């Protein structure tokens, strides 16, 4: 695989151990019978690995290849950097500082960086290094005991006794009419926090406490339409992009007071 020639002053990530070994193997194929590199061999290999000819010559010199016999590599050409080399973290207390910021201000990197007084790019670099993490915050319905009993009774009402056996109602004679809600706020949010931090769970009494846009739709079981001689998908008033009929529906705006927890 060939790469574009590296420009002067251009930075590149360190070569891996396998890339350094492959580089030496390519240079061995470009040696003369007397054991010297051919002219411009370093330039050709540098274009292949996306580095400078100076880097190629340095790795070739480090390998100390024995050209008298089987052309074996006498010294390792792997990376000589230690495990914790590189620039040290400037903000060592970043996880503790993030936990002091209200969760309502931790939904994007820009707001968190503004609260911490640091550049957004720097905060994103810390995220890629695993210093901070992301979590999903989903709004959960707050059901009371009476709500749970009503749901259970409705499910039990759908059980039919036929010849002593229990069956679930096929619901071919039922049409479910309900509102389709599009919330003006995002129900699932990404929260930036420290690794292992327990994110506060957002709850609400009902989804109707959020600002949203609503329209009515009807859903029934798919069935064969004798009039049109085709299968009816059971959707009425739903957008055609989701397989529903192309019938128009009026949008109703429900403006309610959001409930923050």
UniProtKB/TrEMBL annotation:
Single GO MF annotation: nucleic acid binding
Region annotation Disordered: where it falls in the sequence: 235-261
Domain of life: Eukaryota
Gene3D superfamilies: Ribonuclease H-like superfamily/Ribonuclease H (3.30.420.10)
InterPro entries tied to this protein: DUF7769, RNaseH_sf
Residue ranges of every copy of the DUF7769 domain listed in the record: 15-64
Protein name in UniProt: DUF7769 domain-containing protein
Organism: Aphanomyces astaci (Crayfish plague agent)
């Amino acid at each position: 695989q060939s790469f574009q020639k590296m420009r002067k002053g251009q930075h590149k990530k360190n070569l891996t151990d396998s890339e350094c070994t492959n580089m030496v193997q390519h240079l061995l194929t470009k040696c003369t019978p007397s054991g010297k590199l051919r002219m411009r061999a370093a330039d050709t290999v540098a274009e292949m690995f996306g580095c400078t000819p100076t880097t190629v010559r340095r790795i070739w010199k480090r390998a100390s290849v024995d050209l008298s016999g089987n052309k074996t590599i006498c010294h390792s050409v792997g990376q000589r950097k230690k495990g914790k080399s590189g620039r040290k973290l400037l903000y060592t207390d970043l996880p503790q500082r993030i936990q002091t910021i209200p969760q309502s201000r931790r939904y994007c990197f820009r707001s968190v960086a503004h609260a911490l007084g640091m550049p957004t790019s720097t905060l994103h670099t810390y995220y890629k290094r695993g210093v901070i993490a992301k979590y999903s915050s989903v709004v959960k319905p707050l059901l009371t005991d009476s709500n749970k009993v009503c749901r259970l009774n409705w499910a039990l009402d759908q059980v039919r006794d036929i010849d002593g056996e229990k069956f679930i109602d096929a619901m071919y004679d039922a049409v479910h009419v309900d509102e389709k809600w599009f919330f003006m706020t995002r129900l699932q949010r990404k929260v930036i926090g420290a690794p292992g931090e327990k994110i506060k769970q957002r709850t609400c009494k009902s989804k109707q406490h959020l600002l949203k846009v609503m329209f009515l739709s009807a859903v029934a079981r798919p069935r064969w339409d004798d009039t049109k001689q085709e299968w009816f998908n059971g959707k009425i008033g739903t957008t055609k992009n989701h397989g529903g009929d192309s019938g128009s529906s009026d949008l109703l705006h429900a403006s309610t007071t959001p409930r923050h927890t």
